[in-house]
Amino acid sequence: MSKIFKFHNDVDTDQIIASQYLLLPNIEEMKGYTFESLDENFAKDVQAGDIIVAGENFGCGSSREQAPSVLKALGVKAVVAKSFARIFYRNAINIGLPVLVSKELYDAVEAGFEADLNLTEGVIAVDNKQYECTKLPEYMQNILNQGGLIASLNRE
Q1: Residue 150 pLDDT
Q2: pTM of the shown model
């Protein structure tokens, strides 16, 4: 089971990883500051396999690839939101972080709830209820399984 961390609408890339931390030499050093302005304990509390649930327009703002990268480095299994900023969505796929759309999940859950996400089926179960989310096409699932588009292209 995965623990849910819940964030509001319009979470921008600067809230995911603030610009001053982009000066750090690598993602491993940056990840400890993830969501610092929204939840100062997030980086300490999140465990590998946990899920972020968010409202509309998650990842708006700049095109920095570090935003999805720190989430992946912390072991976040997926981000499930009502909608995503296009550049964040694209960057997440590029680095191998699953990003799924669910219009119903956000209003049905609270932070701390436990969930079971089935990426293949596009279903997330919470409290014995199932919610549909994006069912990724097989080719996209393969890209994510290989660690993202860049890793997939490097293997070819």
Answers
A1: 76
A2: 0.94
